[in-house]
Write a structure and sequence with these properties.
CATH class of the largest domain: Mainly Beta
Strand content: 25-35%
CATH topology of the largest domain: Jelly Rolls
Helix content: 25-40%
Radius of gyration: 19 Å
Number of helices: 6
Order of helices and strands: EEEEEEEEHHHEEHHEEH
Shape: globular
Largest sheet: 4 strands, antiparallel
Length: about 230
């Protein structure tokens, strides 16, 4: 198995892909969903993993007061684990794009694992990248203010995914300001103002599918200065 890249688990939709499992989708149950369809409702126990073949899923917790918190997204070749759900289960799995998924039961996975041990390692590695994300999030929330968490996220993305092109770093990532707001817990308006400040300071500029960092040292200095102010 290829060495795991450091950037897996940095974002809530960037987990290690289980590509080998697609060789066994004939053993599972394939379903197609339209954008906005519920795949697993809160309280529903399916005893399956939901393996994404195409599209994108959101996995949320529904709180008692009706508010919903998005925990992570599942992109192709990753999964939502509803194999051993607790009861009551408040998880809501929704197709945020037109998606095709494959449901695997514990018995089906056990049979696949016996036939192909590499799938076991991919399964564990994918889980590990998800654990790394939530451990990182817990640590960030405990130690840093919200604005600093945004700067640290951008700095880490630049170090792990940035490509130096003509003296600037380009990060090819589709990451909306709304998603950044959800990830860091900082208000959406504040996120917009922060990106406006970074753009005016000529530190970085964000578009829909790309973040261009003009001054990595300036980003690091700003991050360190704000960390000292906490």
């Amino acid at each position: 198995m290829d060495k795991i890249a450091n950037n897996y688990g940095a974002l809530r939709n960037h987990f290690y892909p289980m590509k080998k499992l697609q060789n066994y989708i004939h053993m599972g149950v394939i379903r197609d969903y339209r954008k906005g369809d519920s795949i697993v409702l809160p309280g529903e126990l399916i005893d399956r993993i939901v393996y994404v073949l195409s599209g994108k899923l959101s996995i949320s917790f529904l709180n008692e007061d009706g508010r919903k918190k998005i925990m992570f997204y599942a992109d192709p070749y990753t999964f939502s684990d509803r194999l051993f759900p607790v009861d009551p289960c408040s998880v809501h799995v929704v197709s945020v794009e037109n998606s095709r998924v494959c449901f695997f039961s514990k018995e089906q996975l056990s049979e696949i694992f016996q036939m192909d041990k590499e799938v076991i390692f991919e399964f564990i590695t994918s889980y590990s990248s998800k654990c790394s994300y939530f451990m990182r999030e817990t640590n960030e929330i405990a130690l840093y203010g919200s604005s600093v968490r945004v700067l640290r996220l951008l700095y880490d993305l630049c170090l792990n995914q940035g490509k130096l092109v003509d003296g600037v770093y380009q990060i090819d990532v589709k990451l909306s300001q709304k998603s950044i707001s959800e990830m860091t817990g900082i208000h959406y308006v504040t996120v917009c103002k922060l990106f406006g400040y970074l753009r005016k300071a000529n530190i970085l500029h964000k578009t829909t599918n790309k973040i261009t960092v003009f001054d990595l040292q300036g980003l690091e200095n700003l991050m360190n200065n704000w960390m000292k102010m906490k």
